[in-house]
Write a structure and sequence with these properties.
heterodimer, A: 325 residues, mainly alpha, ABC transporter involved in vitamin B12 uptake, BtuC, two-stranded antiparallel sheet, B: alpha/beta, Rossmann fold, 2 domains
Chain lengths: 325, 344
C-alpha cells in the first residue's frame, strides 16, 4: 500500500503541495505573513496566471507533443483583447479566443497533414505570434482604457476568488470531469503511450492532435486576454513569464514529457504548488531567486523520482548492500 | 510688624516662586520649540514601507534600493523589499500582497507603467499611499500616487540631443546623420528620452535622425544593431553621431565602430558617440575621449531622495507631484566631478 502511494503519480503532487505548505508555515511560524487570510487569494491569483496555460500545454505533453507557441499566443491574445475590447470587453475576449482557436487548429493541421513534429511547428508559431503582436501594436505597449473592467476582473469575491481565478478553476473542473468520465481521457493517454496502437484501436489520433492544440491555443489566449484586462495594458513582449512555470506545473502534476501519463487535476495541483511557492516565498520576504531555486529543486527531485533506470539501479545497489551484510 | 515682614517675606517668596514658575514655563517652551522638529521627524519611526523594485541584480536598481533602505532605516522605518524581475503581473501581485498586509506606504519602481495602475488604484482605495520611484508613471494616473521621485526623462533626452548638436558644430559639421540605439521602446523611459532628443534636434533641421532602433538596454543587442547601422550607411557616407541610450549601449556602439574600422571621437570626420545614465564604463570612455558625453542618473542620490520624500510624507509635509533630481551633462570638462558617484 505504502509503495503504491509513493509511486502513484496522481498522489505525488498532493504530497509536494502539502510539503510546501508545511515548510513555508514553519519558516513563517509566529509571524503570520504566509499564514494570513490574504495568502489563499494571492495564491489563486498566481494560479490564474499559469493554470490554464499549464493545462493546455500539459494535454499536448500527454499526447507526447509540446506546444511552444503558448508564449506567443499569450502575448498576442492580450494585445488583441485590449485593442478590440475597450468598449465591449466580451468582444475583445471573443476575438482573442478565436485567434487562439484558429492558431491551434492551423498548427495542428500542419503537424497532421505534413507529419511534422510539434516542437518545430510551434516554434514557428511562437515566432509568428510574437512578430504579429509587434506589428499590431507598432512595438508599443497598449493601454486598456476600460478601467472598470480592469478592476472588476481582479475584484475578490468570497474573499478567495476573483473572476480570473474563478474562470480558471471552472475550466479545470469541466476538463477534469470530461477527462475522468468520458472516453476522451483514456484515448489521450492511449495516444501518448503508443500512438500506433491507439490508431489500431480506432482512436482518431489526427483529430485529437488538432483538437488538443486548438484547446491549448484557447487556454493561452484566454489567460493572456484576462491578464491584460486585469493589468489594464498589453505588451507585445508579454506581461509575464509563462512557459517555464506552465511546463513545470505540468511536470509537477504528474505529466511526463514522454507522454501517456497525467491528468487535469494533477496539473491543477502542480500549478497550485508553484502558486503557493511564489506567494509564500513572497510573503516570507525571501529573495526572488529563492523561488527559482526552490522550483528547480522540486523539479529535479521529481525528475529523479521519475527516472526508471536510476530508481532500478538504486534499488539494486540497496539490495546488494543488504546481501553483503 | 512680624505680619508685615511675614507678608512682605511671603510676598517676596510668592514673587520668587512666580519668577521660578515663569522660568520653568519659558524653559519648557524653549525646550518644546527645539524638540518639536525632532518630534516631527519621529513620525516615520516604526512605519512599515514596502519597496517594490524591478530587478535586484541590476547594479542601478540594487544601488538605489540599498541607498533607500539605509536612509529609511535611519529614519526608523522598517523597509521590506520585493523584486518583480521585470514581470508586470508579479509586481501587480506583490502590490496587492502589500495592500493586504497593510503596509504604511508603498514605494514602487514600476516594471510597466500601465500595468501597475490598477494595483495603485486598489492601494488608494485601501488608503495606502504610493510613491513612484525612477520609472515615469503613466500620464493620467496622477490621482493614484502621492508623488514621483526621479528624473525628467524628456530633459535627459533633450540634454543629450543638445550635446550632439554642439559636438557636430564644434567638429565643423553644419548638419549630420544621427542614429539612436535605445532602451526598450514599448513603454517606460525609452520613448520619453527619444521625444526629448527629437525636441532638441528641431534647433538644427540639417541634423537628421535616420534610425531609431530598439536595443532594449542590452549591450550585446546594441552592438549588433550598431554594426548593422554602420554597414547600412557606409555606402552613403556613414553616420555622424550615435546615441546609445545607456552608457553600456554607447560603449557597445563604440566597440562595433572600432570593429568596422570607423574612427570614434569628437574631431572632424570622426563618429560622435553619446550616452546616458553615467555608468563607470561611460566615465572611463569619456576620459579616453571615445564617448563625447553622458547624463547624470545617480542611484545613491535617488535612493536617498526617495527616503527623504517618504519621511516628509509621514511628517505631513506637502509634497509636489514630482520630486525631480537634477539632470547634468557629463563631458571631459567635468568628468572628474562625477567619476565617483557614477562608479557603483
Amino acid at each position: 500500500m505504502k509503495a503504491s502511494i509513493r509511486n502513484d503519480p496522481h498522489f505525488r503532487p498532493l504530497v509536494i503541495l502539502a510539503a510546501c505548505i508545511v515548510l513555508l508555515s514553519a519558516v513563517d511560524w509566529g509571524q503570520w505573513r504566509f499564514l494570513s487570510a490574504a495568502t489563499p487569494f494571492s495564491t489563486l491569483q498566481t494560479f490564474a496566471n499559469i493554470g490554464l496555460v499549464a493545462l493546455g500545454l500539459g494535454l499536448t505533453m500527454m499526447i507526447r507533443e509540446f506546444d511552444l507557441s503558448v508564449v506567443g499566443m499569450f502575448g498576442l491574445a492580450g494585445c488583441v483583447a485590449v485593442m478590440t475590447g475597450a468598449a465591449h470587453p466580451w468582444f475583445g475576449i471573443a476575438c482573442a479566443i478565436a485567434i487562439g482557436l484558429a492558431a491551434g487548429i492551423i498548427q495542428g493541421l500542419i503537424m497532421v497533414r505534413f507529419a511534422l513534429g510539434s516542437v518545430g511547428v510551434t516554434l514557428g508559431g511562437l515566432l509568428t505570434f510574437v512578430g504579429l503582436a509587434h506589428v499590431l501594436t507598432e512595438n508599443r505597449s497598449v493601454p486598456y482604457d476600460n478601467f472598470r473592467v480592469a478592476l472588476l476582473v481582479n475584484e475578490p469575491f468570497a474573499g478567495l476568488l476573483s473572476v480570473r481565478s474563478g474562470v480558471s478553476l471552472a475550466i479545470f473542473a469541466v476538463v477534469a470531469l470530461t477527462f475522468g468520465f468520458t472516453r476522451l481521457g483514456r484515448d489521450i493517454i492511449a495516444i501518448g503511450s503508443d500512438r500506433r496502437a491507439a490508431m489500431i484501436a480506432g482512436v482518431n489520433v489526427d483529430a485529437f492532435i488538432v483538437g488538443i492544440f486548438a484547446f491549448s491555443g484557447v487556454c493561452a489566449a484566454a489567460t493572456g486576454a484576462l491578464l491584460s484586462y486585469s493589468l489594464a495594458s498589453a505588451s507585445p513582449a508579454g506581461l509575464s513569464d509563462v512557459l517555464v512555470p506552465a511546463a513545470a506545473a505540468a511536470i509537477l502534476g504528474g505529466v511526463s514529457l514522454g507522454g501517456g501519463s497525467g491528468r487535469p487535476l494533477g496539473i491543477a495541483t502542480g500549478a497550485l504548488v508553484l502558486a503557493v511557492l511564489r506567494s509564500g516565498l513572497n510573503a516570507v520576504e525571501a529573495p526572488p531567486f529563492v523561488n527559482d531555486i526552490a522550483m528547480g529543486a522540486i523539479l529535479l527531485t521529481v525528475a529523479i523520482g521519475d527516472g526508471p533506470y536510476l530508481m532500478r539501479r538504486l534499488r539494486q545497489l540497496a539490495a546488494r548492500e543488504r546481501t553483503d551484510r | 510688624m512680624v505680619n508685615t515682614v511675614s507678608q512682605l517675606t511671603s510676598g517676596t517668596r510668592a514673587a520668587g516662586r512666580q519668577h521660578h514658575l515663569f522660568g520653568i514655563v519659558a524653559a519648557l517652551l524653549v525646550g518644546l520649540a527645539i524638540a518639536w522638529p525632532v518630534h516631527a521627524q519621529d513620525k516615520s519611526k516604526g512605519k512599515r514601507v514596502a519597496m517594490l523594485q524591478t530587478l535586484a541584480t541590476h547594479p542601478y536598481v540594487a544601488t538605489t534600493t540599498n541607498s533607500f533602505k539605509a536612509r529609511a532605516e535611519r529614519y526608523g522605518m522598517e523597509v521590506t523589499v520585493f523584486t518583480a524581475i521585470f514581470d508586470a503581473a508579479l509586481q501587480a501581485q506583490q502590490m496587492d500582497d502589500a495592500i493586504a498586509r497593510k503596509f504604511d506606504l508603498i514605494a514602487v519602481m514600476a516594471a510597466h507603467e500601465s500595468a501597475v495602475v490598477p494595483a495603485m488604484a486598489r492601494a488608494k482605495a485601501a488608503g495606502i499611499p504610493v510613491i513612484m520611484v525612477n520609472n515615469t508613471p503613466k500620464a493620467g494616473a496622477e490621482e493614484f500616487y502621492v508623488t514621483f521621485v526621479g528624473q525628467d526623462q524628456v530633459a535627459m533626452g533633450r540634454a543629450t540631443g543638445e550635446s550632439v548638436l554642439k559636438a557636430l558644430k564644434a567638429s565643423g559639421r553644419d548638419g549630420g546623420r544621427v542614429a539612436l540605439i535605445t532602451g526598450a521602446l514599448q513603454q517606460g523611459l525609452g520613448p520619453h528620452r527619444v521625444a526629448g532628443f527629437r525636441e532638441a534636434m528641431k534647433a538644427n533641421p540639417k541634423v537628421q535622425i535616420v534610425a531609431v532602433e530598439d536595443g532594449k538596454w542590452q549591450t550585446a543587442l546594441s552592438e549588433k544593431i550598431a554594426g548593422q547601422l554602420y554597414a547600412r550607411y557606409a555606402a552613403s557616407g556613414g553616420l555622424d553621431a550615435v546615441y546609445g541610450m545607456a552608457d553600456n549601449q554607447a560603449i557597445a556602439a563604440i566597440r562595433a565602430a572600432e570593429a568596422a574600422g570607423i574612427s570614434v571621437g569628437s574631431k572632424p570626420k570622426q563618429l560622435i558617440v553619446v550616452g546616458s545614465n553615467c555608468l563607470k564604463e561611460g566615465i572611463d570612455a569619456i576620459k579616453s575621449e571615445k564617448l563625447h558625453s553622458s547624463v547624470t542618473q545617480i542611484p545613491t542620490d535617488l535612493g536617498v531622495k526617495t527616503a527623504d520624500t517618504v519621511n516628509d510624507y509621514f511628517n505631513g509635509k506637502k509634497l509636489p507631484k514630482q520630486v525631480l533630481l537634477p539632470t547634468e551633462l557629463i563631458t571631459k570638462a567635468n568628468v572628474a566631478r562625477w567619476a565617483q558617484k557614477c562608479s557603483y
